[in-house]
Design brief:
About 40% of the residues lie in helices and about 20% in strands. With about 170 residues, the chain is an alpha/beta fold. It has one domain (about 5-160): Vaccinia Virus protein VP39 (Rossmann fold), CATH 3.40.50.150. The protein has a five-stranded parallel β-sheet. Strand 4 (about 110-115), helix 6 (about 125-135) and strand 5 form a beta-alpha-beta unit. Helix 4 packs parallel to helix 5 (about 80-90). The longest helix has 18 residues, at about 25-40.
Length: about 170
């Protein structure tokens, strides 16, 4: 389970994201998301995992703590504040700023590629998925977790956006 937000979420993250993550719903969502992703990945020990759209590296650190070699990529350099989380957790996670549509890795570089609630922020989703598949080894596992267009969560985000939220 993620640490308490006051210890876990760096102040350098975008304000709206930080506020959501620090809230009760954000903490509950993080815990549930982590449990589901870890289940979908399976035993991560010795796997090479790419967390595409890694955000502040909550999942990347959780996977590294379980023995995976994790690389995280995020387009927003402020989201890469997860480096502090990895250091505090005593694990190594390679975090890079980059674009999911043009991943800087060779074909077949990863055993598992994750994309968790990030494709909704990517302009060219088909291209991002092509890139994730390209860097996935043959027989590897692609794990995508995304909001359903008509879910209550997505509806709340749409209404928040209409009311001026940047998230």
């Amino acid at each position: 389970m993620p640490a308490e937000p006051t210890e876990d979420i760096p102040a350098s993250l975008p304000d709206a994201y930080w506020e959501w993550r620090a809230g009760r719903l954000g903490r509950i969502t993080d815990a549930l998301e982590e449990k589901l992703i870890l289940y979908a990945v399976g035993p991560p020990s010795a796997l090479r995992i790419l967390d595409a759209g890694c955000g502040d590296a909550v999942l990347a650190v959780a996977l590294a703590q379980r023995g995976a070699a994790v690389t995280g990529v995020d387009a927003n350099s402020r989201m890469l504040a997860g480096r502090a989380r990895a250091l505090a957790s005593g694990v190594t996670v390679d975090l890079l700023q980059g674009d999911m549509r043009t991943l800087p890795f060779a074909d077949g570089s990863f055993d598992v590629v994750l994309a968790t609630t990030v494709l909704c922020f990517v302009d060219d989703t088909p291209r991002a998925v092509e890139e994730m598949v390209r860097v996935l080894r043959p027989g590897g596992r692609l794990v995508i977790g995304e909001l359903g267009r008509w879910s209550l969560w997505a509806a709340k985000r749409r209404v928040s956006g209409w009311l001026g939220s940047r998230v």
